Amino acid sequence: MASKVLIVYAHQSAGSFSAAAKDAAVEVLKSQGCSVEVSDLYAMKFKATATAEDITGEVKNAEHFCYAEETKVAWEEGRLCADITEEQRKVKEADLIVFQFPMYWFSVPAILKGWFDRVLTQGFAYTQEKRYSQGIFEKKKAMLSFTTGSMETEFSPNGINGDMNVTLWPLQNGILHYCGFQVLAPQIFWAPALAPPKCRTYMLEGWRTRLQDVLKEKPLSFTPMCCFDSEKGFQLKPEAIEKYANKEFGLTVGIHIGRPLPPNSQMKAGV
Amino acid sequence: MASKVLIVYAHQSAGSFSAAAKDAAVEVLKSQGCSVEVSDLYAMKFKATATAEDITGEVKNAEHFCYAEETKVAWEEGRLCADITEEQRKVKEADLIVFQFPMYWFSVPAILKGWFDRVLTQGFAYTQEKRYSQGIFEKKKAMLSFTTGSMETEFSPNGINGDMNVTLWPLQNGILHYCGFQVLAPQIFWAPALAPPKCRTYMLEGWRTRLQDVLKEKPLSFTPMCCFDSEKGFQLKPEAIEKYANKEFGLTVGIHIGRPLPPNSQMKAGV
């Protein structure tokens, strides 16, 4: 069966490099036989802010409104608002989701953060039991594809912005892998605004080439859920720590157990 | 002269723990003689999304709209929209900014990300030359104060969510320190929703106690700008690397030069 791809796209301008990257993805993936859907967040005027209006009908506890709890119940009862429900339909059908955006302040633009906050509701995208390697979307793949304002050197482990792997951890582990997604290596377009046109063309060509086999790529490595002890605050089990006792590096960027970070573990598969 | 404090507050409900933390801050800081201003983002229906509407009058390049470039020019020409200008006035006057929010997806809620994206415009908050330890707000302090959904153990260096210091890096280094702010240790309220009422009271008491001397606190340590070579892509100068050659840890979470991360460097001052 043909694969379905959802591109969640967050740039204001059809003339941007991000738009060109999105258009290239649509074209190449369609030519590979995929069906491709695009959520163009700015064009949709996607609501970024998590409010009680996201729930149809009464909220359970207006005085002590808790968004995560309220949307969990609303999802169970089919009372989430239409724009969230529609995005959830797209997520449910997708085999791969590509997030295409310009990096704003070491993260995604607010409109895309709003998509994460509002669409990935409890119950639909995760539960306390179903998360990480046992997550709800474990059969799906996801990938960040983004432009930076800074040069690659500035995001190296001795660059002024610090190691890009660190900056990627909250997004790739904390959002994508948390929901179970197999996280494909990010596609990083380093400072296209500073690059000459020829270089931008070259970057887009590399992207088009990658996309031809993107669905066969191996995902990044994360530590499986079974290594953590749910009885002890989800910390690594002693046997898991022991297994890594002679390793040079920590397990991942975040779960580093006081060791050096495994180089490029949030940037390349198989490291 | 009395200190001015701005609290940027991002919770939907006046009955929340976040609201109680914000109210405690207002009360204690006022009793210390500070003047306190609150930006209650949900109550203000603060616009989260960065769009061309943030600029009054013509944009420079509608076809290739670039938010950072357009808002830089608009700021220089006094053509940013009223809500951004008003938040910039508050920032300009503040000696300390406290960001009070519930952590959503390992980061700030979209409405607060929108505040960062829209208020901290180029020229006003940073330039290519004036950033980090030479940043525009070097005389100001800033602090994250937030609740988590997960327990503290889950955010330890061998916990399933990974080291909280890693998750804080993009926010504290990438946004606050980038603009020059002296970053005070974060105030983390671990999973108040899971805690009994007595424990929540205890957490708030600790916060009130801290606030009494908060303006005298030493900030977190970051690597000064002078250690980086602007001619070589802002990487650490050889003499800076050499200076740290015998140290056990990297300089910071992000600038770790392949060493173990300095423990708690994003959580405590003086480490």
TrEMBL record, chains A, B:
> Which EC class heads this enzyme's classification?
oxidoreductase
Domain of life per record: Eukaryota
Cellular location(s)? Cytoplasm
* Chain ranges of the Flavodoxin-like fold domain: 3-190
Gene Ontology CC, one term: cytosol
The UniProt catalytic activity note for this protein reads:
1-(beta-D-ribofuranosyl)-1,4-dihydronicotinamide + a quinone + H(+) = beta-nicotinamide D-riboside + a quinol
- Entry EC number(s): 1.10.5.1
Query: What role is this protein assigned?
Result: The enzyme apparently serves as a quinone reductase in connection with conjugation reactions of hydroquinones involved in detoxification pathways as well as in biosynthetic processes such as the vitamin K-dependent gamma-carboxylation of glutamate residues in prothrombin synthesis.
**Protein name stated in the entry:** Ribosyldihydronicotinamide dehydrogenase [quinone]
Q: What broad taxonomic lineage does this protein's source fall under?
A: Eukaryota, Metazoa, Chordata, Craniata, Vertebrata
